[in-house]
Amino acid sequence: MMALGKRLQWGAWVMLAAAVGGCSSLSSLNPFGSSSSKGAALVSFQPTLTTRTEWSASVGAAGAYVFQPAVVGSAVFAAGFDGTVARFEDGKAVWKVNAERKLTAGVGANARLAVVASEKGEVIALDAATGSVKWVHKINAEVLAPPSVGDALVVVRTSDNRLVALDVADGQRKWIYQRSNPPLALRNFTGVSFEGGVVLAGFPGGRLVAVNPANGGAIFELTVAVPKGSTELERVADISGPPVVVRQEVCAVAYQGRIGCFDGTNGNTLWSREFSSAVGLDRDGRNVFVTDDQDAVSALDVATGASLWKQDRLAKRGVSRPLVVGGYVVVADHEGYVHWLQKDDGAFAARVRPDSSGVGAMRGLGSGVVVQTRSGGVYLVAPQ
Prior knowledge:
The structure is a single chain. The chain contains no helices and 36 strands. The chain is mainly β. The chain has a domain at 47-65 and 279-384: YVTN repeat-like/Quinoprotein amine dehydrogenase (Methylamine Dehydrogenase, Chain H), CATH 2.130.10. Residues 1-36 have low confidence and may be disordered.
């Protein structure tokens, strides 16, 4: 395996999507979907943190999809199913446009472009400064995850697990990366991103692949989990959520599989243990934080994988992937509550409910989080 070395400037987002068309999806495992079973009652606690909604805005409901805001500096980009795409600064709309087509995914953005995907399999690039359409490219495939926007390429992952690279200037296709799919896979909406010369992508079957953005060729592959079981359902072992890369260490988790951290320079496993998560993990310099498939949030030692604490008072509440924000771990649930947990022991520190429609996705912004809800609300929630 080729070493990551300096090719990866440690900080990558990985996308994973459902397999559709030749590969059935497990839509019930959508991490941001609503739960049909009654969740645990909210526990009472004495808040140790005061939060407030700094600003709020709206971009329209998500429909059957999950829309994820993008944060670029102080700018927040968001989109909705009805075609609305907007850029907000301090809660004020710098621009808000309608793409004139129903959307399924977005937003991927950098300082130059904001990119979304339509129901007709189109990738639409908008000028990040003005909202005007720069180009449209039809890839004739469903896109569930926000495109990744780099300096030279826009990389899109289709729901049948292909990576499609488009020229950032005009949208022309540069390459396609694809691999064989298992019969079943998670229907997931996590975005894809690339940094430092490689594209990291988690695939069904527990594989993590680094792809060369110059030509779409695989540079290396890590085995995070190995499918096991006698039925196809038991053998679902997809990487869930974005692997997180810090100081040449790649940490990732799989559904019905394992969680572990790897040395990115040689591919060696630093530690690995049995675990199952359908939503993913986050980490800081000392700990890995992960939500399991029973909606418990755990902290593990990043050096050894040893358990440090477990917060299991959110069972059956459709808990999201953790997000490390300052001294806290932030998770959301399907009833729209955002929970701030103490990073050192997992105790509840604060709770806020921007609206009751359920949280679709969150992104960090400074000491706060940008929350986009199922009804299309966009909120910046931060400590006072």
